[in-house]
Amino acid sequence: MKVYIETFGCTFNQADSQIMAGILSENNAILVSKLEDAEVIIINTCYVKHPTEHKVINRIQKIQEQHPQKKLIVGGCMVEIEPDKLSSIAPEAGWMGPHQINKTFQIVKSVLEGNNTQITGFSSECKVGLPKIRSNPFIHIIQICEGCVGECSYCCTRFARGKLQSYPSSLIVDEARQALSEGCVELQITAQDTAAYGKDTGEKLSDLIKELSALPGNFRLRIGMMHPKSMMDDLEGLIEAFKSEKVYSFVHIPIQSGNNQVLEDMQREHTLEEYKDMIYRFKKEIPDLSLATDIIVGYPTEDEKAFQDTCDFLKEIKPNFIHLSKYKHRHLAQSSQLKELNFNEVKRRSKIIEKIKSDLTYQDNLKYVDSKQEVLIVEKGKKGGFVGRTNSYMPVVVKEAKIGDFMELKIKGSTRTYLKAF
Asked: Which domains does the chain have, with CATH numbers?
């Protein structure tokens, strides 16, 4: 049984694929790195954005055209969000819903035997402690909860991942301890909303971070995306937890729009003022904090004033990382009932935000030049050299290094996307 796994999307989806690989390996399946060598192909889909949807669909169609003799299994969010479309483009494929990855071996075995096996639906089974095969042996991803407590009007992912299910902190800490004992130097804590952790069980993200950072060893914790609304009732606890030297001074807190009316229309459940207050309080206590945020440009109710408010917001807050999306209706999302803005207008606004993003990140990166930074080397560079992260999670490229080492490096140059230590 030779299996190839291809993954689209977020860190959480990457962890799902690593679990699939771990389960298959434990059952003596052979994992291959080339699609051509596989008997069974698993495509773990993402459906959060319209461009990603098209990439996924094109990939599924291309594989069926070029490798009709191979068995295909489609997993991930598409399976739950738009099964009718999946049935039309891949009628003979097996299905594996994102809550069913513990059944990976059974599904692969069944499909290989010629069955059109399709297992979907929600499950309360815990993903912590399941076997994983890491794509990077030095970085371990831990899923702390699945689903969310929000009802954002533009989102379709919540229909695939469901209501919040937090996993026991004791199991999470055990998995982290095991990963560190196996040589990992970075733990990535992931969820659809990490700050929602424990809102269904009475536990808190801040306490979990403190438990994890108390583990012995020299390593770093990267905390994944936090919804502003979910942070509000434990802000002080989170700030204290992030002060640990083992936690990257890095927060990913999406704003989506710099206009309160649009935020209300998006059903974000927080205001611009509340968001700014959180950021200022974080930065007051953690001066070297870096901030990532998300912007959706062209939401159906975003007029010119609302767009300008978003531009002004970015110039005021000066995020270190900006993830920009052009609004497009998503299947099942509430906002899909609204009329989309003219595509050319959305494109125009997107270009303006891209320019602001480019200017901000370039100016921000310049301030690191000639400084000395402690850098954790985490991977080989795609174009040569090695890539590391500063304590505030800024990417640094160096020519010679050893993965897993902490290095004291002088920053000698910068680009809009990374720092250079050569």
From this structure: 2-119 (3.40.50.12160), 139-366 (3.80.30.20), 372-420 (2.40.50)
